[in-house]
Amino acid sequence: MMMFYKSLAIFSCLCFFMPISSTAQSDGPPVLDTEGRPLQRDIEYFIKPAITDVAGNLTLITRKGDQCPFYVGQLPLLSQDIGNGVTFRPYLEGEDTIREGRDLKVVFQAFSICITSTEWKVGEADPTTGRRFVKLGSDDTATGYFRIDKSDLGVYNIGWCPSDVPIRGRPRCGSAGILIEKGLRLLALDGSAFPFEFVRVETAAKDLWSIFQQKK
């Protein structure tokens, strides 16, 4: 009888530490674009404010004192630029649909004359505010993965809080918002979450063409 209980205890421990299957982990509502379609791996999207008359799309930003665009930032409202599109790559292999609360890579689809990756990663903290900037650079650890969550108000927020990627200890989770530094709008964690929405680049191009045709 004692051997039976020992075997049962060992079996229970093994079940407790057994990793959850990818299928179980990938369950969850899909993130939707502005047309109500689920976001897909390797499809290019603009990330724009979910509220109007605030600012423009997200793009590569050159911070004061730098010669290269190493940061993720937001265009000013009246900018003639439309920003840079991004693609999403889920951490879970075989998952093509972008789902809420799942770890994923965010990559700008942009050309840079600087020798750096256009992948997003968690960067250093601002010495004054303590908020962590979102930077560019290749990083296959947990700090190179983000997530998209829907708020209680029904808008999407971008954040960092690893759930699929292995990480030691308890992560310092944070939502992405905008930190204004000398007129620059920089994406940074640990502040108020900024509401975003996602529009396919091809959809945005069609809208711009339609507006151009109306003005002719």
UniProtKB/TrEMBL annotation:
Secretion signal, residue range per the UniProt entry: 1-24
Keywords: Disulfide bond, Signal
Keyword RNA-binding included in the entry's annotation: no
Family matches, as InterPro entries: Kunitz_inhibitor_STI-like_sf, Prot_inh_Kunz-lg
Keyword Signal part of the UniProt annotation: yes
Any single Pfam family the record assigns to this protein: Kunitz_legume
UniProt name for this protein: Uncharacterized protein
Organism: Citrullus colocynthis
Taxonomic lineage: Eukaryota, Viridiplantae, Streptophyta, Embryophyta, Tracheophyta
